[in-house]
Amino acid sequence: MTSTSLAACCLLALLATAPTVRASNALDRFDAAVADGLPRTIVLGDTHGARGRDAPGDVLTIAAALDVDVRFTDGVPARLYTGTWRGEPAVMTRSDHHMDITVTGRDGVTITGFTDDSSGSHQVAPPANPGPAQAPRASDAASRRHAGARPAMLAARSARASGTTNDLSYLAPAVVPPTVTFWIFLHDDTKGTSRQHINAGYVAWWIADMKRILPSYRLRVFYIDNRPGMTDLSYGNKETDMWRWTLAADAYAAQAKLVYQPGKSEYKFMLITKDLVAPSTVGLAWLGGDQAMVSLKGSYNTVAHEFGHTFGGVHEDSAVWWSYVWPCETNLYPTDYALLSNCYRYTAANEARIRTYLTRGGDGPQPLDPASSAMTLVD
Ligand SMILES: [Zn+2]
What we know:
Elements: H1 3-14, H2 26-36, E1 40-43, E2 59-71, E3 77-85, E4 88-95, E5 98-105, E6 108-115, E7 121-123, H3 131-134, E8 146-149, H4 156-162, E9 179-186, H5 195-213, E10 218-224, H6 238-255, E11 265-273, E12 283-286, E13 291-295, H7 302-310, E14 320-321, E15 328-329, E16 341-342, H8 348-358, E17 374-378
Parallel strand pairs: 2-10, 9-10, 9-11, 11-13, 15-16
Antiparallel strand pairs: 1-2, 2-3, 3-4, 4-5, 5-6, 6-7, 8-17, 12-13, 12-17, 14-15
The chain binds zinc ion.
The site of zinc ion has 8 residues, from helix 7.
């Protein structure tokens, strides 16, 4: 028995709620705790995150499984859990050979990860801020908005879709709750970045919050990579490339026979890139539409920001919360200078927009009627 496991054993004995687990590594301890029934508190020793003298230690409380469906690129499912890590609210993502703990706080998103081939943990550095020189998300949001009719070629989508036999088993509205599926395509140039850490930094805390906002919805996140025509898309030109991404996503939806029913079975498509999606731009989305692009050069709230736009969320309803747990900008705040921390939340007004979008009953944007709709591109 090593000194580390000895320490873990004795700490465990002091925790009234902790199960008696003697597994050899963090993942085994985590799995054993979940198998024993939640909530459970365990100690994950041998992590090297910086901690103050009075920090509560490497104590992980797994409170509950989160009812979301997340699948990584190889089709391996991930399970998400809520709880606390070192006393802070946390979201855990357990996938094949890997477990990440995501904590959002005053100092940003911190990720503590464990793999089954290492006895210790790993910490993930936040994305490098593009800085004022490269400009953030939008310094002049109003001037960056572009309204225009969708190209006529997009109308071909309806023709393609109608030429195929829809797989209605996907929907089964009588038994399946309303569903929103987030298709996240990882550009070929992101191959050097861990998929698990993209999820832990940009998505895990956000999808947990979306579940809070939309408790009656079934939320799914599917990561896709190595998809010719989609993950090898050239980018860098704001208007042109958003249209090309939109067309590619439409073609994917048609080929996969995805059923789209407003408010009942919706999907959103995001392309995640390594470099800025356009000059001075870390993210783009159609306001109330279904497609978005996000750069890994954007801060960890960028996915929340752009997906928020696709649900009709707007900068005008974002806020700086001076009296939140820490002073912060909400997810849809238009600048990304990192002068203030992020709240990792939407304002109540933008949450209301998200709910309204999904209950609009066909009165909102109509992605399946592209020829007549005007789309607004926002960043
Ligand atoms: Zn924006």
